[in-house]
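hey so u asked for the seq, here:
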Amino acid sequence: MKKSIIVLLHIGFWVCYLLIIIIMLGIIMQDNNDEARIEYYLKNAISYTIIPSAITFYAFYFILFPNYLQNKKILRTVVYGLLISGGAALIGTILLDSIEGNYCEEQGGDMSLFAEIISMTIIALISGIVALIIKGFITWFEEIKLKDMLKQKNHEMEMALVKSQLDPHFLFNTINNIDVLILKNAVAASDYLNKLSDIMRFMLFETKTDKILLSKELAYIEKYLELQKIRTANAHYVHFQVTGMAGKKTIAPMVFIPFIENAFKHTSNKKIENAICIRLLIKEESIQLLCENKFNPNLKTQQESNGLGNDLIQKRLHLIYPGKHTLEVSNQNGVYSVNLTIYHG
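ran it, structure tokens below
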């Protein structure tokens, strides 16, 4: 929500609040021209209604809502809300007693200290509740906008992901390799064809959900690597290692594969041993991807790709894992490395 609208909401509340006070003062001081009495009621209104309400309103708005109510700590919200309202009432009482002087005794209308505190607490509490409603409305509105933006961005990025993963060169090369393999080893060719079918099924259906089992993501990566390996005779072209147990851990679909796919696209020599090294470290509180690929920095064409760019990858990570991931990318001495950690909880 725009700051100008938030400011208008605050101004609107205080204008309405002051109008109510002015109307009540007008009724009380009707047909009364005593300047001393008018001054007394004005000072009384400031210390009795405005100051406690202002303290409570902004304490509820800036402290109570974001720290307790938004985190669904209902009991603490109620307790701290009453304490804040009572404290604001005490401040108002002290100010009220300091400005009343002897005038109140002369008029014979002094209210007991207990009644003053209770009435001020109720008035302050009402203002605090209004603050919670306003802050809740603003937060709700911002969350809707954020969800809509996240949904739109995720849709755009998932479409870009799907388009990048359905790389026609990868598909055609894989199909051609399988076709050649049919004559040599029909059983192996059938196995690879099933892997290709599983990969396409995964990309078209599994990526529609926000979260999938980590085990499914690992299975997809393994099948993708197997299909990449048949494109070279180098048995040690790729090194892939998983440390830890996936268990029932979940992850956003296709978080790791863009980095892995880029590693294959940017590797210039398939005959090098361990040209691509991929390690996944699964821990209780995090999942870490370490991906390195060797390339020839002099071959500029190797750095041009139709795949998913780093900017888009990072934007997607910021949207689906805000504050819950770290990404380090380095490019030194012909080795491109990615270190991505995603934290749980």
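The two ends are 28 Å apart (CA to CA). Residues 102-110, 301-307 have pLDDT under 50 and may be disordered.
lmk if thats what u needed
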